[in-house]
Amino acid sequence: TSFEGIRCATRERKLYAFGRSDGTWTAARNPSWRYIEYQERNRHHGVLYADFFCPNRSIIGNAKQAVDALRLEAGRLSGF
């Protein structure tokens, strides 16, 4: 599990910490903002940015909208 942030205006992401099996967090070694490139190795960042959290480079209205969008997609995918 990781704790990350996304900046919609600049298409950047930041890794803050990693979850540990004992329930604690360990800080990221280099918590700097990095441009989100759409590549296979970090495809999830690009998908979350474009399809869920920052449509049209704008921040979604609230956390509920993000959760609802993720649940809708999970339900759609579970139908396969």
Question: Which tags fit this structure?
Answer:
80 residues; alpha+beta; 24% strand
Can you tell me about this structure?
The protein is α+β, with helices and mostly antiparallel strands and about 80 residues long. Helix content is about 35%, strand content about 25%. It has two helices and four strands. Strands 1, 2, 3 and 4 form a four-stranded antiparallel beta sheet that branches. The longest helix is centred in the C-terminal third of the chain and has 16 residues, at about 65-80. The two termini are about 25 Å apart.
SS field, number of helical segments: 2
The residue-averaged pLDDT reads: 88
Classify the beta-strand content into a percent band.
15-25%
Give the CA-CA distance, first to last residue.
26 Å
Low-confidence stretches: none
Overall 3D shape: globular
Q: Please identify the structural class as seen in this structure.
A: alpha+beta
Helix content: 25-40%
The biggest beta sheet is recorded as: 4 strands, antiparallel
β-strand number: 4
Report Rg. Answer: 14 Å
Helix-strand string: EEEEHH
Write the layout of secondary structure elements.
Layout: E1 2-7, E2 12-19, E3 25-27, E4 34-35, H1 43-53, H2 63-78
Antiparallel strand pairs: 1-2, 2-3, 2-4
